[in-house]
Amino acid sequence: MDLPRLTLPASAESITAFREFVRQGAAAAGIASEDMERLDLVLEEILINVARYAYTPEKGLVEVAYAREGPGRLRVEIGDWGRVFNPLEADPPDLSRGLMDRPIGGLGVFLVRSMVESIDYRREDSRNILSFTFPNLAPTS
Amino acid sequence: MTIEPTELDRAVLLKVTGRMDADNAHEFEEACQHWITHGTKHLIADLDGLQYVSSMGLRSFLSVAQKLQAISGSLILCGLHGLPRQVFELTRLIGLFPVFETAQQAIATL
Question: pTM to 2 decimals?
């Protein structure tokens, strides 16, 4: 597929460039400006996971591509060449726990799932590929 | 992100402005830790100027609140709106913090 795509090192320092790249596609697809911060959050959570779990301790690249999927809809694909890592397999966080029992982590994937539609993971040609459609038109909350 | 502290009688007010993300969430935690180390038990985070918070930011809020709870203190939130309010609500963290509309209301409870 000949989609707009950007490849950069998988690290926190790349998040700003990816954010600007995907925001261009989102604006062209007609995504409302008040949705942009949710899109930023989805990207950040996924990219941080790639840097932390697919590549630790080694370093590697991550590629983000997008395609317009109808009015106000964007399909985004995030791929890396790291070890097999499917973030969607993580157990959902227990949101009923009190302050002192609440685990400190595990909320990133939960937030991603609540803000996108049709998210799915595949392993293809030694790559992890996570793709989703934004925004979620049927919010779960 | 900027964090602007104001010392009050019984608390420290931290005005947080901008975006709290994977890159800088630790700065909020460090700022809170500084005041905890200096004997502050109640921190009020004024989030009226906070536009964005990701899960790394949520971790910082949770970690600080747990430290304060352990010394019978509290992390009080006010001014939550937009995306930050949405993520606190989705994760049901909002029920774990005292939350007020304005800093004045939060201060009045201490």
Answer: 0.94
